[in-house]
Amino acid sequence: MRKISIYSLFYKSIYSFKDLAKFRFLDIGKTIKYVFVLAIIYFLPAIIKLLLIDRDFSHLTTNFDKGSLVIIIPIYLIFTYVLYSGLLFIKISFLAWIASLLAKGVKRTLPYRNAWRLTAFSITLPTILFGLFPLFRIDIPFGILYDLAVSLIYITLAIFKMPRPKK
């Protein structure tokens, strides 16, 4: 399980609840690396929309000339990526707490550290979908609630694939 690639993790996180349940035993380093890669994938549509489609830097360029934009735009993009990554880590931490409570409710053993890892892989599909919607100019009212709901469905199905503790 240690030799599994990020691409395999990404692919299996989209469709296999049994593999999601197994991923809770991966190293925390690989899980954190996966979350940063997921943040990049989540952030790419925003970059594409900003740089290639809209090309609207008016909210950044009120007091700057064209030469300063060469410095300002990369700093803005790095800051925004760090913000997206931080929000993703907060989302995973919150959902991991809910996953721990849910696992107790269905009588499965799931410590918080394993719930965090399970949640990090379970949010793959909703994160990708809701990251792509702004690129295609799809506006979903209360999109955050739908994102959380789909994430919780994935987490719940992965928890049900975990084996029951032996008596």
What secondary-structure arrangement, pairings included, does this model have?
Blueprint: H1 6-15, H2 17-22, H3 28-54, H4 66-105, H5 112-122, H6 124-132, H7 143-160
Please characterize this protein's 3D structure.
The protein is an all-alpha fold and 167 residues long. It has one domain. Helices cover 72% and strands 0% of the residues. It is built from 7 helices and no strands. It has helices at 6-15, 17-22, 28-54, 66-105, 112-122, 124-132, 143-160. Helix 4 crosses helix 7 and helix 6 (124-132) packs antiparallel against helix 7. It is elongated, with a radius of gyration of 18 Å.
Runs in which pLDDT lies below 50 for 5 or more consecutive residues are: none
The largest pleated sheet is described as: none
Strand content bin = under 5%
Number of strands: 0
- Return the average pLDDT rounded to an integer: 88
How far apart, in Å, are the first and last alpha carbons?
Answer: 27 Å
- The radius of gyration over CA amounts to 18 Å
Feature tags:
transmembrane helix, 167 residues, DUF1189, DUF1189 domain-containing protein, elongated, mainly alpha
Brief overview, please?
By secondary structure, the protein is mainly α. It has helices at residues 6-15, 17-22, 28-54, 66-105, 112-122, 124-132, 143-160.
